[in-house]
Write a structure and sequence with these properties.
By secondary structure, the chain is mainly α. Helices cover 65% and strands 6% of the residues. It has one domain (7-103). It has helices spanning 7-27, 33-40, 44-65, 68-78, 90-95, and strands at residues 86-88, 101-103. It has a two-stranded parallel sheet with strand order 1-2. Helix 1 packs antiparallel against helix 3 (44-65).
Length: 104
């Protein structure tokens, strides 16, 4: 079966879509603090806190998944069969629990 997106690509797309939809709603005036408060009952201060926390959370996750071990684990998961391997340093191979990642 052909896999179009890796897990990281999919979640990156989800994050970008959420940010784009949120920005579009704000620009169109549909996400005005008073409107959101009327619909959800959430104060403007809480909205700012939730928005900042969501932005910080996605940024931290994006940086975490793109660390060296994360990129290697993603590449290993995308390998098509058990004969393919990623050969790396012993430290990195020990940190990634995937049989496709082996020490040199």
């Amino acid at each position: 079966m052909l896999k179009l997106l890796t897990s990281e690509q999919f979640w990156s797309l989800v994050r970008t879509t959420i940010q784009s939809v949120g920005a579009s709603l704000a620009v169109l005036g549909l996400a005005h603090p008073e409107t959101v408060e009327q619909i959800l009952g959430v104060t403007a201060a809480t909205q700012v806190f939730v928005g900042a926390a969501a932005n910080l959370g996605t940024t931290v996750y994006s940086l975490y998944i793109r660390r060296r071990n994360g990129l290697i684990a993603t590449a290993a998961a995308a390998l098509p069969n058990d004969r393919d391997r990623i050969v790396t340093s012993p430290e990195i191979a020990a940190a990634i629990p995937d049989p496709k990642v082996v020490a040199r």
